[in-house]
Amino acid sequence: MSSQFGECFKISTFGESHGDAVGVVVDGCPGNFEISLEHIQAELARRKPGQSAISTQRKEPDEVEILSGLFEGRTLGTPIALLVWNRDARSKDYGHMKDVYRPSHADFTYQEKYGIRNWKGGGRASARETIGRVAAGAIAKQWLKAEYGVEILGFVRRVHQLETQVSGHEVTLERVESNPVRCPDAAAAAEMEDAIRAARKAGDSLGGVVEVIVRHAPAGWGEPVFDKLEAELGKAMLSIPACKGFEVGSGFAGVLMKGSEHNDAFYKDDTGTVRTRTNFSGGIQGGITNGEDIVVRAAFKPTATIIQDQDSVNEEHQEVTFKAKGRHDPCVVPRAVPICEAMAALVLMDQALRQRARRA
Amino acid sequence: MSSQFGECFKISTFGESHGDAVGVVVDGCPGNFEISLEHIQAELARRKPGQSAISTQRKEPDEVEILSGLFEGRTLGTPIALLVWNRDARSKDYGHMKDVYRPSHADFTYQEKYGIRNWKGGGRASARETIGRVAAGAIAKQWLKAEYGVEILGFVRRVHQLETQVSGHEVTLERVESNPVRCPDAAAAAEMEDAIRAARKAGDSLGGVVEVIVRHAPAGWGEPVFDKLEAELGKAMLSIPACKGFEVGSGFAGVLMKGSEHNDAFYKDDTGTVRTRTNFSGGIQGGITNGEDIVVRAAFKPTATIIQDQDSVNEEHQEVTFKAKGRHDPCVVPRAVPICEAMAALVLMDQALRQRARRA
Amino acid sequence: MSSQFGECFKISTFGESHGDAVGVVVDGCPGNFEISLEHIQAELARRKPGQSAISTQRKEPDEVEILSGLFEGRTLGTPIALLVWNRDARSKDYGHMKDVYRPSHADFTYQEKYGIRNWKGGGRASARETIGRVAAGAIAKQWLKAEYGVEILGFVRRVHQLETQVSGHEVTLERVESNPVRCPDAAAAAEMEDAIRAARKAGDSLGGVVEVIVRHAPAGWGEPVFDKLEAELGKAMLSIPACKGFEVGSGFAGVLMKGSEHNDAFYKDDTGTVRTRTNFSGGIQGGITNGEDIVVRAAFKPTATIIQDQDSVNEEHQEVTFKAKGRHDPCVVPRAVPICEAMAALVLMDQALRQRARRA
Amino acid sequence: MSSQFGECFKISTFGESHGDAVGVVVDGCPGNFEISLEHIQAELARRKPGQSAISTQRKEPDEVEILSGLFEGRTLGTPIALLVWNRDARSKDYGHMKDVYRPSHADFTYQEKYGIRNWKGGGRASARETIGRVAAGAIAKQWLKAEYGVEILGFVRRVHQLETQVSGHEVTLERVESNPVRCPDAAAAAEMEDAIRAARKAGDSLGGVVEVIVRHAPAGWGEPVFDKLEAELGKAMLSIPACKGFEVGSGFAGVLMKGSEHNDAFYKDDTGTVRTRTNFSGGIQGGITNGEDIVVRAAFKPTATIIQDQDSVNEEHQEVTFKAKGRHDPCVVPRAVPICEAMAALVLMDQALRQRARRA
Lengths: 360, 360, 360, 360
Hints:
The structure is a homotetramer.
Chain A: E1 4-5, E2 10-14, E3 21-27, H1 37-47, E4 64-66, E5 70-71, E6 74-75, E7 80-85, H2 107-114, H3 131-148, E8 151-159, E9 162-163, H4 173-176, H5 186-201, E10 208-215, H6 229-238, E11 243-248, H7 259-262, E12 266-268, E13 274-276, E14 284-285, E15 288-289, E16 294-300, E17 309-313, E18 319-323, H8 333-358
Antiparallel strand pairs in A: 1-2, 2-3, 3-7, 4-7, 5-6, 8-9, 8-10, 10-16, 11-16, 12-13, 14-15, 17-18
Helix pairs in contact in A: 1-3, 1-8, 3-8, 6-8
């Protein structure tokens, strides 16, 4: 279904950008697990608009309410409903969008699909839809950490022409959160921030690449054939608004290598654990984790909202000029980091539960 | 589930590379639709091994039997079971694999996941698993063509260092099938073939990129949020063995553009249809088709099977040298073309049926 | 999943009886369909407690809020989230339940399943859970009526020893709603009401049978094999708290007939429509509607909550006497009527959409 | 989907009665589990036609082939495909059915649903479809027995007017299989057999009731809300051809009791286990097992195939007389016993795996 994700750990999200509220129902969380609401709220704070001068100035507190599924701070095993009210919808800002399809937005396609759309904003196509993902993902993160010690860490690898060469091994949450770009390389981050400010000033926008590293996932997670772990992670990332590409391990660059260079030789480490010398596989072989770090990257296009006149058509299919106004996010990539992490967490918790069902 | 794909048009595949047979059950195909068995067989022929000097020499006729779901050449609306017997399994070739985990194969991860594996070959991780995909995809292709005029066409965009600059608009099935590499650019194809031959001779392997173009898909297919069309296509491609990356439209290169360059301006064409001047969106906006060509690319790593000694470990987790022998496929990319097409067809037919359920 | 129902028209419910709220997310409703909120509220009023002297005196306004999925009164095609706050939870009433497993309730089994339970009430096992079903069912009812003229009508066929012999053809909503028992036979209804009052006075409870008739469903809905329409309806009814049995058409009594008596002969009516002379099939043959009225019945056990001392055990598995107190519903059957209707509506709308996907 | 059943342990069946073969693909079976093919074959023998003078004389060996998913007698964790060829289809027997819709069969409804049908037999509506269920159910039975000691035992409780009063506790497989009726009460069985012979002689048919008892299922299986264990079992049984009713525990008769009579008091047995004094709940409370025997009953109508002239209509919707001929099964109830057991096994194994996913 369009608004459901997962099999054993399944979420259902709801809510339009300019409706009353957005939220998520989480079904399948094991019972008797202690949840930190502060952590959920902290993750939402990493996603919310208006965090810094380089993101949109829409002001939303994004305070989450938990309506069900918890009792005295612990999960009941029943659906956990999480709700965030929309406070700063400002529908007046959107009157100019009523009759025009914004280029590279989803206005035209929603209208074609449903015969109707909420023209007062992006509706379900807005990044605001991702609140439910981040809230549910925070629960998954907590559970994965508590049960398996799994850590999921995202960061900005690239903004437009600027790419950091930082090694994944050096990345820490502290370094990622030390600057508004969420790039753990301070020098690169400063340049990226300048580029984003320049784009904002020009009414333009920039894209970039988010990398997510998953540490300590045990071997044996993921499914062969259609639900390979890289396929599930790929779907998860590609379902985030503005994502245009996904790769795992060596990814597209792996094509430039020969098999003799690309194969990850096995060895036994000091603790007797089977490891690989290299990790071009990105921690996944045949769709299943091998115990190495899982490494994936997602490409985000430059935001479609720009403050420039553009050619377009209206609902009557007449050619018109679309004159954008209002708030815009010149580069969504820093805010995409917690969303990518959340999607990875949702996939991994689902796979962990699926593997529990399989083994005695 | 690991071996099921799709929601309204759903397939279940089965079979190990070195078991008795491989096959697929197709559930959800509308009734009273005439099926061409010749077309299914022809698609399987495009996938099968031993087609040319640059693919593996395993000899399999891959003749498909249809066990159910058809009556007098038409679909009954009931499950269509398709079966291909394994003829040339040659288990004797695989004795050297019994105790060793082949690097960058799925031997180790299957053993970790299931506590058992069929060591006489790749089992479900073998490319032979894709027979069911191609057979089911052929049904989907026929239906999409008959009902909507949709055409799905894949080709090899890159092998290792060699990339063709051919425009998607120039690609025809005839040009794709005119050479064993399945690259519609004859000059590039010749170079690619030389590179593959050289790799074979060196006991090495090469990867590459397959591009798939879908023409004439109507606007309105695909789902917002989690089941965005690009997310479904991404999952589909990333579930193919050896796929390490996926992109739609501008993909990773789109990151190098600014929003003002990347947005696809709408206009009205001579027939009154809403079109876009450019197609960086790859035919999909907000997860839903906009009527332009759908364009996706999938990156395939160099095949893990090479004829060279490699460091590895055995089932007792002792370090050993793996000495490969037998047949190998120095570059799977040409054979991946019909598989990618099939996966695209499965996704699109599923989405077409889902959209039928939605609209009156 | 435990809290999700449906395939093309899918609902996710959430909320404990004594939590903050209960609700439902409806995914898959076609877009651009006008919804009457008054009708949803009216259906909830038929389900809510405290309607009459013969139901529990818990006071809940059960006012529904719609948080998403509507725009200017019409569906957007996106998830519709409906919420009802719990106002009269009165947790103090439940202190006596903290350490004791109530007989024939779900306290013990939830504890065994999840390792935790919300002991302040029935949690998800409470009939309050059905609010989401009724709210979502009201949407389905409206759509089925508007698109196909389908009418879904439930009534009380039996309370304890008392059964009405009314013919299904005579039943109207007006007659059903003319008395608090929801039995369209006024004389039987009066006797049933007396029996329920007597049970209340004795601190005891009664069960009964609800019959649901679906009129004007077209031929061709439902699926063969596992998702037969009677199987889906059976699951739907048996998932309602306290339901112990289900039958379609002739049901258990059909066993007393011979094939020559039970077969429904086909004929052609004045309008040229294929009809059956009798309807022992209950409108369903081979899992698929034949155009006749769909007729099903669901048996509800006497409510487990009674105001009498009972033998039981506590969390430490010691034998104790459970002394019930507080409010209780001596017969849930009248309130089960709108719930059964709602479940039938959910099944039928799902099947209608599934059939749309199948046929051109 | 119509031909798929289960969530974690999922089966896909295929095949028409008069096509080439019928079969099933089982997905989700844990790996490294030893399977007895003899047991699968034995279960199929209990289901097959021609077992005795009181069943249809169609001759089918029903020998099962396993095409995938096993290695050296153990499950690989991958899909297990099981196939049975149709040998005695005798299409010539069915020419009289080409143009006529048989009363109370699925000919008319399939035609309405799909716009086509295989008129050479019952197609997917034939009881032959249940072969896949029984084969897959045999795997589930083996696993449930090996992992949890669960026993699933069905028997004929009633044929037409004749009902045995045998207590479920007395029923053993040996007694059930000691006569062709599968009624563990020898005296009742003899009367039932006479009744069936008389019906056969008259070209008529009889229905009956199958009871299934599940012993040693642990507490905590099943899901609250929509996937309650009784709801899943009800769907499972109601999906069997000719099933018209289902009940659990006290069932429809429970309606005749008061709450004070019906509640199952808890106590602690000698081993310290929580038990109930009575079992009107049928082993399930709030949708979840409580550790007592699970007891369900399914009502089967008299077979629609009778050897008598009947009024009907043809494909042109003209009124005609349908003259039955050929083989017929005067009472399917004895053969329904292994089918009901198989469906119970499929439900329970699925729930067992789902519960594994939930608990640590």
